[in-house]
Amino acid sequence: MSDNISMKNIIKDKILLIVLGVSFLFLISSLVLILVNQGKLVESLIIHVNAFQGVDMMGDVTDIWNVLLMGSLMFLINTLLIKVFYFRERIISYIILSVNFITSLFVLIKIANIISIN
Predict the structure, then answer these.
(1) I need a labelling partner for 105 at 20 to 30 A (CA). Which of 50, 65, 95, 115 fits?
(2) Which secondary-structure segment (H or E) carries 55?
(3) pLDDT (tens digit per residue) in 15-74
């Protein structure tokens, strides 16, 4: 019963819900971006470009999916940690929430970058 009460309190926190929702939308946008452009991608992809040396990392299509998978796993783990720390140390839950947001944003930027280069 107390777990249900704690979830109701977490759901009432508007900042938490909005930032988690935007982070989740970043991941969904990354998934849509991959699915829309999957047919256009070649087997050998440029993963990283250095400004001074040029292309320094190559990969294939599964590497894009791996970036999304790792970002999604981090989102899930961070969301569970937010729930654990919400009533113990609320500031830690907000720090983890900001890390969650930044990670999801970076996943979207990385996937968009890989797709735009190729």
Answers:
(1) 50
(2) strand 54-59
(3) 888 999 999 999 999 999 999 988 877 777 877 777 788 787 788 888 889 999 999 999
**Structure token digits, residue 104:** 């999801």
Give the CA diameter of the chain: 59
pLDDT on residue 52? 84
Signed CA dihedral, 24, 60, 112, 78: sign only: positive
Please work out, in degrees rounded to the nearest 5, the angle formed at the alpha carbon of residue 13 by the alpha carbons of 91 and 77.
60
CB 64 within 8 A of CB 111: yes
**Burial level of 118, CB count in 10 A (0-12/13-18/19+)?**
middle
Phi and psi angles of residue 46, each rounded to the nearest 5 degrees, phi first: -85, 115
Tokens linked to 13: 């926190």
